[in-house]
Amino acid sequence: MGKFKLSMNIALDIIMDSETGDVEVIGCASKISNTEKVVVNQWQRHILTAGESKYGYIKVSSKSTIGRLLPLGEAIKVKFIKNDAIDERLLNSHKSIKGRLDGCTKPFAVNGIYSDTELLMKYLVEDKILEVKIDN
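and the corresponding structure tokens:
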């Protein structure tokens, strides 16, 4: 079967007591508006741009697998893999831009990542780990 991303429209009928602040749900209706199969644990190729290199971030398309799955504004464990060495960092995804990972300046410098470097990336959803293979 696999994993699917579901988009749903949900309508709630609610009664709220303005004096106590109590809320009671008296009706609920939901409808799936979109279903999309999600391919996880698949490597995605990314060429680092000059802007990403200069300002220390990685930005993949918000419509790519990683861009859709990467949560907004959360700490993500990132494993930079170069040859046999692994450099693990805790970095933050951007709070409002899907597919963007901030705080990469130091790992870029340590791992010899610069503009036009080819990266192979895979996001492990259950573990919240982004693996980045450096190919240069």
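(Above: one complete record from the training split.) Residues 105-111 form the longest helix (7 residues).
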